[in-house]
């Protein structure tokens, strides 16, 4: 770990909608198990070394808060940092989380305004839950602590904290895209959200495009704000307060993925997968059930590939894993029905004795199973219509130990800014173009695959999640973006034979 980070004064206080532990009740007793995300893995050592606190919702109803607090005290001892729960009532969960976060901000920030449900009651709840988080933060922090807030659920937290007289340094990282002005301006509460964001000291975005969209929105909606470039940031000055906006593409614990992919459990799982699907290339899709992931277009592209390239018949299998998510929201259930109908139609059209073209899995896989698929698949098909980054792309790369895989990647995933040179890029709305890209990936020579995958692996290895955490914390302290890739914005070429776009 970078020494300057450890030497900074104060503790690190992470704030996110959910705590990094999963609480479960078994036989009447509440227990916790650690969450498995890369963010937790990367932040845990920093929290332990500097002394740290993680504040978030426990996922449990608020009438068992005393019990939750008690269990979290024990978990804090074993984690080596403090876990503090913010209680939420059932109604708050419905209106702030399901409502404002997932039925307004999520679709709008992914350019899908037609999926938004602009209910004013959601806004009222969003404000009051952000205030609730802020008062928990205020009651917890000491003067020198650095507070790092994560994601779109808590965009008002800084303004609430400043209103309560908290003057600690405040950082914010947005995991999802930031939309351009013509889309952001549709938000009825655009002014409140944008001006509240200016109460942070440092804001991190996944890509240059997200940062540029944010700066443009500020310039247009808050014309009194001055903007200058300095040390790799945009510095925005508004009402005597300065906020720096920078680009920090999030990553994965590359070493850990590679190590586990080499392990016996994954090797065995990979062997079984290929044993069941002999003499054919596996194309893998792994997504949460979400309309931003572009699953129906992808299935149609696979159908197009089978229709236009008969050489693929019986030689290729799409394994599409869909992880259940937000199923209580009607749009998500509609999407599930649409996916299952398409899978049925395509399998009905092409299945032959001994070959089913699409293997559809609708459940959460264990880490071992997931890595088995990553290790085995000859092609990864990652085609979101919009995505902040897309960690699945980076995880596939880390697990592709033999460097024989091909990554097909959407031009609208944040990951494209770092990976565009060596992935096959597709426009996820261009069904025939994507179908051609599947065929190009299938036909790619082993030498070409190796050349591309080696470079992809070097990129993800170099800029892993530890580097990301260091870069953000160092930027918060030293006010410079030192030694971190300034990834230029990806702009689709007018025409490229590489990307399988049909003209
Ligand atoms: C948001 C932004 C941004 C998936 N299926 C299984 C499983 N997973 C894990 C993957 C990966 C994670 O879930 C998905 O991460 P993504 O980045 O692909 O997508 P979001 O969940 O939408 O995340 C995104 C990210 O935040 C970080 O900033 O990249 O753009 O939307 O880690 O491994 N894990 C297991 N079983 C599964 O079946 N164990």
Low-confidence stretches: 1-7
Q: What is the gyration radius calculated from CA atoms?
A: 23 Å
Could you name the CATH class of the largest domain? Answer: Alpha Beta
Widest sheet: strand order? 5-4-1-6-7-8-11-10-9
CATH superfamily of the largest domain: Glycogen Phosphorylase B
For the sheet with most strands, the description reads: 9 strands, mixed
- The helical percent reads 40-55%
Question: What report would you give on this structure?
Answer:
This protein is of the alpha/beta class. It folds into 2 domains: 2-247, Glycogen Phosphorylase B (Rossmann fold, 3-Layer(aba) Sandwich); 254-462, Rossmann fold (3-Layer(aba) Sandwich), CATH 3.40.50.2000. The protein is 46% helix and 18% strand. The strands form 3 sheets. Strands 5-4-1-6-7-8-11-10-9 form a 9-stranded mixed beta sheet, with helices on both faces. A 6-stranded parallel beta sheet has the order 14-13-12-15-16-17, sandwiched between helices. It has 19 helices and 17 strands. The structure holds GDP-alpha-D-glucose.
What is the compact description of this entry?
Helix content is 46%, strand content 18%. It is built from 19 helices and 17 strands. The longest helix is centred in the first third of the chain and has 21 residues, at 120-140.
Q: Any chance you could write out the topology, listing elements then pairs?
A:
Elements: H1 3-7, E1 12-18, E2 21-26, E3 29-34, H2 38-50, E4 52-57, H3 65-79, E5 82-85, H4 90-109, H5 120-140, E6 146-150, H6 157-163, E7 170-173, H7 181-184, H8 190-197, E8 202-205, H9 208-221, E9 226-230, E10 233-238, E11 241-247, H10 254-262, H11 264-276, E12 281-288, H12 295-308, E13 316-323, H13 330-350, E14 358-362, H14 367-376, E15 379-382, H15 391-399, E16 406-410, H16 416-419, E17 424-426, H17 431-443, H18 446-462, H19 465-478
Parallel strand pairs: 1-4, 1-6, 4-5, 6-7, 7-8, 8-11, 12-13, 12-15, 13-14, 15-16, 16-17
Antiparallel strand pairs: 2-3, 9-10, 10-11
Bound molecules: GDP-alpha-D-glucose.
């Amino acid at each position: 770990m970078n020494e300057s980070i450890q030497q900074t004064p104060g503790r690190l206080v992470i704030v996110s909608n959910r705590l990094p532990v999963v609480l479960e009740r078994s036989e009447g007793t509440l227990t916790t198990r650690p969450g498995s995300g890369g963010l937790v893995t990367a932040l845990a050592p920093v929290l332990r070394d500097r002394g740290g606190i993680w504040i978030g919702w426990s996922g449990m109803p608020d009438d068992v808060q005393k019990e939750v607090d008690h269990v979290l005290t024990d978990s804090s001892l074993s984690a080596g940092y403090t876990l503090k729960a913010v209680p939420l009532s059932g109604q708050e969960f419905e209106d702030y989380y399901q409502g404002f976060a997932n039925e307004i901000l999520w679709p709008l920030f992914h350019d899908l305004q037609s999926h938004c449900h602009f209910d004013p009651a959601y806004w009222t709840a969003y404000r009051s839950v952000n205030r609730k988080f802020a008062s928990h933060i205020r009651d917890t922090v000491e003067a020198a602590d650095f507070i790092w807030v994560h994601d779109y659920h808590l965009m008002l937290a800084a303004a609430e904290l400043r209103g309560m007289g908290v003057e600690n340094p405040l950082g914010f990282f947005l995991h999802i895209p930031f939309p351009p002005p013509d889309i952001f301006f549709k938000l009825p509460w655009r002014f409140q959200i944008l001006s509240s964001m200016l109460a942070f000291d440092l804001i991190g975005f996944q890509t240059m495009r997200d940062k540029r969209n944010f700066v443009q929105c500020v310039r247009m909606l808050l014309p009194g704000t001055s903007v200058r470039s300095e040390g790799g940031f945009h510095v925005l000055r508004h009402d005597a307060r300065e906020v720096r906006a920078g680009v920090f593409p999030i990553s994965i614990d590359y070493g850990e993925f590679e190590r586990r992919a080499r392990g016996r459990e994954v090797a065995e799982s990979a062997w079984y997968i290929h044993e069941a699907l002999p003499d054919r290339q596996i194309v893998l899709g792994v997504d949460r059930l979400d309309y931003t992931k572009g699953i129906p277009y992808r299935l149609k592209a696979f159908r197009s590939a089978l229709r236009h390239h008969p050489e693929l018949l019986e030689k290729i299998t799409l394994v599409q894993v869909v992880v259940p998510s937000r199923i209580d929201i009607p749009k998500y259930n509609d999407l599930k029905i649409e996916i299952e109908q398409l899978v049925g139609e395509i399998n009905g059209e092409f299945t032959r004795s001994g070959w089913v073209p699409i293997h559809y899995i609708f459940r959460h896989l264990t880490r071992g199973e997931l890595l088995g698929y990553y290790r085995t698949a000859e092609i990864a098909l990652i085609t979101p219509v919009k995505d902040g980054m897309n960690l699945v792309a980076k995880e596939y790369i880390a697990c592709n130990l033999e460097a024989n895989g091909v990554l097909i990647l959407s031009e609208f995933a944040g990951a494209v800014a770092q990976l565009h040179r060596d992935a096959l890029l597709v426009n996820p709305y261009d069904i025939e173009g994507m179908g051609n890209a599947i065929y190009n990936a299938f036909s790619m020579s082993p030498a070409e695959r190796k050349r591309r995958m080696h470079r992809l692996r070097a990129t993800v290895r170099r800029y892993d999640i530890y580097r990301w955490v260091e870069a953000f914390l160092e930027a918060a302290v030293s006010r410079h973006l030192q030694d971190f890739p300034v990834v230029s914005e990806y702009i689709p070429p007018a025409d490229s034979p590489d990307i399988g776009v049909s003209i």
